[in-house]
Design brief:
GO terms for molecular function: ATP binding; hydrolase activity; protein histidine kinase activity. The protein is an alpha+beta fold. The protein has 6 helices and 8 strands. Strand 6 and strand 7 form a beta hairpin.
C-alpha cells in the first residue's frame, strides 16, 4: 500500500480530480465565459500544485503551503464570481486579515480605487499571499513590533497607465535574503512578469522586505476608478 501522504500520490489524485472537473464543465452546457474562467482557475491551481512540490522540503510543509496558496486563489475566485472583478484594497486587506494582521494595527494600506480582472486578481493574490506568509514566518510580522505598509498609485500620464504597488516591512530584525530560491520568489520574479507583464524589485533590508511591483494597467489587467478626492482612500482605518 502506498503512503497516503506521498506527494506523488497527492499530485496524481489532484490531477485526476481536475480532469473529472473539466469533463463535467464540458458536459454541463455552461456559458463559455464561465467555462473559460474555471479552466483558468484550474490551470493556476495545477501550476501551484506542481511548483509547490518542486520547492517543498517535506510533506508537511508541502501540504501546509499548498493549502494556503489554494485558499488565496479560491478567496479571489469567490469575489470575482460575485462581482465580476476584484478590488485591490480588499485583495490586500483580506490576505493580511487571513494571517491575523489587522489594518490600522499591524498594517497600513493607501491608494486609489483599482478594479482587477479575475486572472490578474488571482496572480496578485498569490503574490500577496507569498509576501504575507514570508512576513509571518521569517519577516517583520514574526515580531510584535513588526509592521507592513502597502501603498499603490496609478500613473495616468502614460499609455497604458501603470499601476505601482509598494510593499514595505518594518520592525524586523536581521532580515537576510533566503539561501535558496523558493516558490514565493518564483511567483514574484517570474509569474508576475509572465502573466501580467510586471516588473518587480525585491530588497531584503535588515528590518524587513521591500517589494515594488509595476504593472501596465491594460484592459485585460484592470482599471483605475475615478472618485471624489474627498472620499479617496488615504490609509485611514475608517
Amino acid at each position: 500500500m502506498t503512503d497516503p501522504r506521498d506527494p506523488a500520490e497527492r499530485l496524481s489524485a489532484l490531477e485526476a480530480d481536475n480532469a473529472r472537473l473539466r469533463r463535467l464543465l464540458d458536459e454541463a452546457g455552461l456559458p463559455d465565459s464561465l467555462r473559460h474562467g474555471m479552466r483558468n482557475t484550474m490551470a493556476m491551481l495545477r501550476t501551484v500544485m506542481h511548483r509547490s512540490a518542486e520547492s517543498a522540503a517535506d510533506v508537511e510543509s508541502y501540504v501546509a503551503h499548498l493549502d494556503g496558496r489554494f485558499g488565496a486563489i479560491m478567496r479571489v475566485q469567490a469575489a470575482t464570481d460575485a462581482f465580476g472583478d476584484a478590488d485591490l484594497h480588499t485583495l490586500i486587506s483580506d490576505e493580511l486579515m487571513f494571517h491575523l494582521a489587522r489594518e490600522g494595527e499591524q498594517a497600513t494600506l493607501a491608494g486609489p480605487r483599482v478594479r482587477l480582472r479575475p486572472k490578474t486578481a488571482q496572480v496578485l493574490a498569490l503574490a500577496l499571499h507569498e509576501l504575507t506568509s514570508n512576513a509571518v514566518e521569517h519577516g517583520s510580522l514574526a515580531l510584535p513590533q513588526g509592521r507592513i505598509r502597502a501603498t499603490w498609485r496609478v500613473n495616468l500620464e502614460v499609455e497604458p497607465p501603470v499601476l505601482s504597488l509598494a510593499w514595505a516591512e518594518t520592525g524586523g530584525s536581521g532580515i537576510t535574503a533566503p539561501c535558496r530560491r523558493g516558490f514565493g520568489t518564483d511567483v514574484l520574479t517570474e509569474m508576475l512578469a509572465y502573466e501580467l507583464g510586471a516588473a518587480v524589485d525585491l530588497h531584503f533590508a535588515p528590518d524587513g522586505l521591500r517589494c515594488a511591483i509595476r504593472v501596465p494597467l491594460t484592459a485585460r489587467i484592470g482599471r483605475h476608478v475615478a472618485e471624489d478626492p474627498e472620499t479617496a482612500w488615504d490609509g485611514d482605518s475608517r
